[in-house]
Design a protein that fits this description.
This protein has three helices and twelve strands. With about 260 residues, it is α+β, with helices and mostly antiparallel strands. A twelve-stranded antiparallel β-sheet has the order 1-8-9-10-11-12-2-3-4-5-6-7, with helices on one face.
Length: about 260
């Protein structure tokens, strides 16, 4: 029972502090492909040096290019946070769909190992312009909240901060691939409080990886680190993956009516 209370507390802090994520099968066909690389001519994504090697990124250029590319298209963003202890695992999955007209639907699901059931099982958000609806359920299916919100709750927004923290901090080894540029940790980036809940200790053994298209679009990222929770060593892994770029739609859920 004591273990159950610890994990419930950890999950609540994760949802509020914004340690974000998601993982679900992609639907639809990818329509965005990397630009062709002229033979013999080194190219790289905006903000990433053309020559391969270890480098600090031009964060402003890369983040601006990524934002411009996402604003110009629709996409599906899958995010996942997994925290593994000695005898337990807690996972938060997020599936955000952004249509070309800017409407958003996001679903959050949480899961714990047997006997370590999280307090919140599912949360959903639908946003059209300034109109925001949210509903949340516990593990028993009881609705905790439902209805309009004045703005998007914080735990639905914090994924952008993780992307910025990884790009602006640390140094990366630049590797060119057929899909674009892969950035692997050379000097670990700092991991700020927006990523780590206050109940967790300082991160150790931090590694990060980002995949960037020649257009500057950040297609995926992965952050791993060790830390402590209530004196126990835990392993945290956070992944983001952009999919169905240019081929994502958002249908108005029935529960919004």
């Amino acid at each position: 029972m004591h273990r159950r209370r610890l994990v419930v507390a950890l999950l609540a802090l994760l949802l509020l502090a914004g340690c974000n994520a998601l993982s679900a099968p992609s639907s639809g066909t990818e329509t965005l492909t990397p630009a062709a690389v002229p033979e013999g001519v080194p190219t790289a994504a905006p903000g990433v040096p053309a020559a391969e090697g270890v480098t600090a990124l031009d964060a402003d250029r890369l983040l601006a290019a990524d934002e411009r590319r996402r604003e110009a298209t629709s996409y599906r963003l899958m995010r996942a946070v997994e925290i593994r202890g000695r005898n337990w695992t807690t996972r938060i999955d997020r599936d955000r769909r952004v249509a070309a007209d800017g409407t958003i639907y996001e679903r959050v699901e949480t899961e714990g190992s047997p006997g370590l059931t999280p307090a919140v099982a599912r949360s959903e958000l639908w946003k059209d312009g300034s109109t925001v609806f949210v509903r949340t359920y516990d593990q028993d299916g009881t609705r905790i909240e439902r209805g309009p919100f004045p703005s998007v709750p914080g735990h639905f927004r914090r994924w952008v901060l993780l992307r910025e923290q990884l790009v602006t901090g640390g140094e990366y080894r630049v590797e060119r691939t057929a899909e674009g540029v892969v950035l692997r940790t050379a000097e670990p980036p700092p991991v700020g409080e927006a990523v780590i809940p206050i109940s967790l200790g300082e991160p150790r053994n931090v590694t990060a990886q980002l995949a960037v298209e020649e257009s500057g679009l950040i297609r995926s990222l992965r952050l791993r680190y060790d830390t402590t929770f209530q004196g126990e060593t835990v392993r945290v892994e956070i992944t983001h993956r952009l999919t169905a770029v240019g081929n994502t739609t958002v249908d108005r859920p029935d529960w919004v009516d």
